[in-house]
Write a structure and sequence with these properties.
Elements: E1 2-7, E2 10-13, E3 18-26, E4 33-39, E5 46-52, E6 58-60, E7 68-73, E8 78-83, E9 92-99, E10 116-117, E11 121-126
Parallel strand pairs: 2-11
Antiparallel strand pairs: 1-3, 3-8, 4-5, 4-9, 5-6, 7-8, 9-10, 9-11
């Protein structure tokens, strides 16, 4: 079994920064990419950012481009999400996903391409 554990969420003010981490542990599986998604109350889970496991290719939702940065440390089995210039509309539970799907690169923003998910970490941005 593969476990993902997110951390780094919290309550901040608009304009502040947070850095989320997601550590993978458990059974060793082939990994093609990692992604961050978020879900606000009453809304569907939405794509935030993704990265290939070698770190070469990143993809971002338009709403976070220029403010968020995704990165990996494969030696530590960790993916990060640096979030700057946070806005109240960024408030959500943030989830990381891990993909062992060979088709990952063709649709990294699709939730179903991810095989494993963490429990999420709450990010709240006050105005």
């Amino acid at each position: 079994q593969v476990q993902l554990a997110e951390s780094g969420g919290g309550l901040v003010q608009a304009g502040d920064s947070l850095r989320l981490s997601c550590v993978a542990s458990g059974r060793t599986v082939a990994t093609f990419g990692m992604g961050w998604f978020r879900q606000a109350p009453g809304k569907e889970r939405e794509f935030v950012a993704s990265i290939t496991w070698d770190g070469d290719i990143t993809t971002y939702a338009d709403s976070v481009k220029g403010r968020f940065t995704i990165s990996t440390n494969s030696a530590k089995n960790t993916v990060y999400l640096q979030m700057n210039s946070l806005k109240p509309e960024d408030t959500a539970v943030y989830y990381c996903g891990r993909s062992s799907n060979i088709d990952y690169a063709s649709r990294p923003s699709t939730p179903t391409i991810y095989n494993y998910w963490g429990q999420g970490t709450q990010v709240t941005v006050s105005s």
